[in-house]
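Encode chain A's predicted structure.
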Amino acid sequence: MKKLLAAFALFSLFFGAGNLILPPYLGVQAGADWALVAFGFVISAVLIPILGIFAHAKLQGTIYDFGAPLGKVFSLTYAALIYGIALALPAPRTASVTHEMAIMPFADSPYWLTSLVYFSLVLLAALNRSKLLDLFGKITTPGILIVLTALIGMAIFAPEVALASTTMENPFGSSLLEGYQTFDAIAAVVIGGVLLVSIQKMQAKDNASPANTDQANQSTKPYDLQKSTVRFAAVFSAIALSAIYVGLIYAGAQSQGNIDLESSRSEILQAMAKLFLGNTAPVGLGILVALACFTTATGIVTGTADFVASYFEGPAYAPGTARKVFISVAIAGAILGVLMGQFPVVYIIAIAVPALVFIYPTTIILMALHVLPASWATPKAFKAAVLVCFVVNTPAFLDSLGYPTLQAATAFLPLSSQGLAWVLPVLLSVVGVKIFDVFLIKK
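Encoded structure for chain A:
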């Protein structure tokens, strides 16, 4: 039961604003190529984030441990970038999406008012984090699944229509990059820690019970229990997310002839829901958006506050210092959410592109190396992979900022048209380090 509760919690923490508005948009654009687009989206929006959860299960640490093989300075810098991006972009976007999907259809209210109320509630939830698993696992997730199942089910059983050709120049590559916009790879390294802390608290509470003390002493070690629980949650979430994404993309493709292709992502989701769910769509969709977005924002704020507060624990600090730091960081995150959440979704998505192009490749590399056996994931392999990635990915990053002059330098590399020119050089660098190590050992 506890594993299933953790699985629901992880799914709910993952499923936020981007997870709702991106798949239908891709489906409408993909048309007859919806299956290929769904495959690309699942790779970047499901497999890569779940890889991060598996890495968390192995490390049993914080985001700092992801960069530890590269040294303290890198780890702290990387953690600051991840948490800064998470607080500044995906968390506020949840408020903006909530406004556009759940408030605008009913009331002429400004973005800033929604953002203010929204992040006040997020702060309240973050400060009561002891109830996190119960809130996310028992209440939020079932509501999300019911509404989504209804929408996808109506699309599947609706009369099949002839699908037009895709409007996308590179369906597979575009869907891969669109999956970045879910921010779920970043979420994995942030909320994975939240899940671990929640599981640890839950197990500590159970083990403190006199009736469970002897059983706890004789059973599996806490590390193994946490590891197996996180892995179960990761597999469950991967299956659930994949099914929902494929369903939403298919529903978008099926509604292609009834939706203006120039519509925004939020407008496409609204139109698709109304097409398949009828006049009740605005109410159901509003509930869905509010639930899905709120859980993600709470997870980000809580994870950030947890990380910073962890550096103020121990005998060197006065009792209660860590709790005060946690509250301060949570308040700061909520304030930043209010400030950024007053911008439209399309604006936040646009300014997120350079940040994603810069940080995603490094994040994927750290996840993958931590999952590999220790003989491959040596400090030298980490350093070589990250350095090569930084060099090869620089032209793409500059292009995202509007400076495409260096793009020709990596255009010859495989997967460059998908924005993944760094993949092969990084793989070769890891293999090269392994060969070099084996050669030195033999010598």
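The chain has two domains: 2-371, 374-443.
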